[in-house]
Amino acid sequence: MIHTVYKKKILDKVHQEPPHHRSSFTGIPIQDGVPNLASIAERCVPNPGDRGRVIVFIDGSNLFYAASDLEVEIDYIKLLDYLVDNARLVHVLFYTGNDPENEKQCKFLKWMSRNGFRVIAKALTQAPNDVKKANLDVEIAVDMMTLAGYCDTAVLVSGDGDFAYVVDAIAKQGVRVEVVSLRSMTSSALIDVADCYVDLADIQQTVKKIDGDVGSSVVTTEE
Question: pTM for the whole thing?
Fold first, then answer.
């Protein structure tokens, strides 16, 4: 209940429903055992209150496929500006597979590292079906646990349900956790343990690339 109170305080929530109508941890309204996503969306707006120190974790591959599904290219400067808003940014970490032979990707990652993004890259490996892959789930989870003590709010840009456990774990340490991803590619288990969920489709006009913007590129990796 401590974390639920913390969440309500940050979001300046006045109305409180009976405890048995809410998630025991997140405080998200539940109907027939399912989190009320409409209620989450209403409360997950930029700068909902004092978010303190913010660390952003971006699952590059997951975001790439989400953006591809929306048929948009992400402007990472705009995305970061939306995610951080007026809070104090500590770090923004970008995780991706790396193909040294992909010149476009190499230039993009160099641009990212020179513009405030900490790039964590892993060499792509050849899968039996000839698809190159790089799984960075462990790196993301370990970094979230390691850095939990250095932030008040953790923003995870991924819909991978494998992160539900680590999100739950750091939230129990008092960290506010916000998840941003495309709803059709986001695990319900991940949404349920997050303090805030934002559907990428709802903010695509805010964070998409417009011709002439420099803060964007395509990351062609797979996990």
Answer: 0.77
CATH code for the domain in which residue 52 is found:
3.40.50.1010
- Total structural domains within the chain: 1
Count the Cβ atoms, other than its own, within 10 Å of residue 167: 25
Whether 44 and 178 have beta carbons less than 8 Å apart is answered as yes
Residue 112 lies in a domain: yes
Phi and psi, residue 90, nearest 5° = -95, -55
pLDDT tens per residue, range 1-41: 333 333 333 333 333 333 333 333 334 444 444 445 444 44
Residue 203 inside a domain? The answer is yes
Residue 2 CA to chain centroid, in angstroms?
Answer: 23
- DSSP SS3 for 172: coil
Tell me the C-alpha to C-alpha distance, in Å, between residue 9 and each of 16, 189, 196. Answer: 11, 24, 13
Give the orientation angle of helix 137-147 with respect to helix 164-171, to 10 degrees: 0
Q: Would you say residue 7 lies in a domain? A: no
Burial class (CB in 10 A: 0-12, 13-18, 19+), 166: buried
